[in-house]
Amino acid sequence: MGSLEKVDSLDALLAKHHVDLTAREMLRELDAALTAVPAASETLSAGEIEFLRTHAGDGVGEVLDQWSSVAEIRARAVEIARQTVTALADSLDVKEAAALLGIDRSVVSRRLTARTLWAFDLHGHRRIPRWQFVGDDVLPGLSTVVAAIPSTASPVSVAALMHTPQPDLGDRTPLEHLAAAADPAPVAALLESLDTW
């Protein structure tokens, strides 16, 4: 709680951590993300709990005795909020991306249009995830990867995939795989299937 005592509003907290968003924008994004949290009626029913207790094996009863739909919903909401904040904080606007790459903003905009650089929309403002950059350049093979990102993919799900070790990549993350200048096709294949998760 110590660090929160130094700020008295969400705007101040965002500024403290150099997140280029207003409190209103952050709250809208959290609201959109939290719509994915199920209602209590969409978690385990009494019948499902009894089935698991009867058929799932040793130790399940103890776990189920400690489980509650309220705690499950809270845990999911906290995780979604954490992932959303991370995705937003770990992104750049067009001006910041241009400065990082040492190029003009118009070049960044053209790369976004050509889908050689990926961005998500935040209420009419494009946000460019930092995972696409290594040092002051883009990841090798990025254009192949970006072309494979489904149009409906959320920045949270894309970032999660890019940071998760994958068996198909020798247990490396897609970021590690690309940074090693390896074939981007397997990463593109993982991203193409993102809509099916």
Detailed description of the structure:
It comes from Rhodococcus wratislaviensis NBRC 100605. This is DNA-binding protein. The chain is mainly α and 197 residues long. It folds into 2 domains: 4-89, no CATH class; 91-196, no CATH class. It has helices at residues 10-16, 23-34, 46-55, 60-66, 69-89, 94-101, 105-113, 142-148, 155-162, 174-179, 185-192, and strands spanning 91-92, 120-122, 125-129, 133-134, 137-138. A hairpin with a 2-residue loop joins β2 (120-122) and β3 (125-129). The two termini are 36 Å apart.
A few lines on this structure:
This protein has 197 residues and is mainly alpha-helical. Helix content is 52%, strand content 7%. The chain has two domains: 86 residues, no CATH class; 106 residues, no CATH class.
Give the SSE map.
Blueprint: H1 10-16, H2 23-34, H3 46-55, H4 60-66, H5 69-89, E1 91-92, H6 94-101, H7 105-113, E2 120-122, E3 125-129, E4 133-134, E5 137-138, H8 142-148, H9 155-162, H10 174-179, H11 185-192
Antiparallel strand pairs: 1-3, 2-3, 4-5
What features would you highlight for this structure?
single chain; 197 residues; mainly alpha; 2 domains; three-stranded antiparallel β-sheet; two-stranded antiparallel sheet; 11 helices; 7% strand; DNA-binding protein
